[in-house]
Amino acid sequence: MKTDNKFGLWALAWPIFLEVFLQMLLGTVDTIMVSRISDDAVAVVGLSGQLFSALTTLFMTVASGAGILVAQKIGSKLAEDARTIAIMGLTSCAVIGLAMSAILFTFPHQLAGMLNVSDELLPLWDTYVRYVGGGMFLGAMMAALGTAIRNTGNTRAPMYTGIAMNILHIFLNYVLIFGAWGFPKWGLFGVTVSDNVCRLVAVIVLFYVFMNSFERRIGFADLRTFSLRLYKDILRIGWPLGVNMSGWVFSQLAIYSFIAMLGAKELAARTYMNSMESFCFMLGYAVALAIQIRIAHLFGASKTREAYRESFRALYIGLALVTANALLLFLLGNYFMRVFTSDPEILAIGKSLLALNLLLQPAKMLNMGMNNALSAVGDTRYPMVVALVSMTLIATGCSYALGIEAGWGLVAIYSCMITDEYVRGLLVLFRWRGQKYLRKAEKAKEPKASPGLDARDGALSV
């Protein structure tokens, strides 16, 4: 906050990339270890992950809106407002997370029925959803703390926390799943214990960093801080983001339920493929998130022209990175799939998706990059409308019509997802090029003529 150097693209992006890489690594190691339990366990983890993501959007609405405003207020030199917004974001997310934890811990069986979970998966589902979902409030606090800290320009602290969390999580997974070194052999239940212990440690560390991230230190008594004016600003930006995220996640949840209708092998193949795709996109995601922070800061500082140029610089970099990664996965994907499973049917399904991934990753980069640019300046409603229409009609509707009703299977579903990403990406690109919010901000900053003076040259009117 003392200098703008930390708001440079690469200064922001490389710690985010490393943090995301470690998160992806953690997810992959989770999948590999869980696959040693059974492919059914992998299917449960994959499907429940979509459910958790859907519910996560309920608190990410507040966390994302607060994060954007923190960066804008810092750019505008309004440090006290930034501090207040960050505190309200944290307390709101904690309350929402506690509500989600109660629902997931109490009603896992009912949720399974809604998602077409097969009878053979129910025992594993109940265990995983009850205990990992019961710790949802820790995930909510992690999201709020990490988002606020990153938007102050400090992307390194969440990265270091991620490193420690990954090391601890891999260790605990190993000893609690397989009963190594005298620890209990808990299988999938061991994964739930590992998840919650690691999230608790991360919350403690991030909260300490959070307390010292603003010009005036945050104490426990400050957690009661509330400003209705600023909270309205959070919701103004945040609720369309939340609806957008919810629409995407619920669309993916519906698609996962369609894949579950195809069979457990198709569901496991999609879960394995999703882990590999995540490594493709992590560099692009880091750039997209960094540019959101940077544009919000530039926008708050009224540097609108620089904000516009920076968005395209980031987009070109991101497209190059994700395309190169997708090509690498296409060439080596068959070898990577064998790390997860030796089942020939699952391997054959995964192989058919590798070529389609070459089309999917650039579309995701375009969509996320331009969405983040619009969000950074407060233009969140247009992307929300575009996303809801496209995801409902193309991603979800066409996936069911072609993949299930027409019987074309997983490849058809994947193709619908790709089409949806391109449609949304191109529409938000055209919106950004129109510069509506940038021009509005420039106009608001124009000096107004004083009464009795000519607006053109300041001469007295006659």
TrEMBL record:
Top-level taxon of the source organism: Bacteria
GO cellular component: plasma membrane
Main location group: membrane
Membrane-crossing segments per the record: 7-29, 49-72, 84-108, 128-148, 160-181, 187-210, 237-262, 282-302, 314-334, 346-363, 384-402, 408-430
Membrane topology (UniProt): Multi-pass membrane protein
Protein localization: Cell membrane
Pfam families linked: MatE (PF01554)
Keyword set includes Transmembrane: yes
Keyword set, alphabetical order: Cell membrane, Membrane, Transmembrane, Transmembrane helix, Transport
MF term (GO), any: antiporter activity
Presence of keyword Cell membrane: yes
NCBIfam families: matE
Name of this protein: MATE family efflux transporter
Organism of derivation: Cohnella endophytica
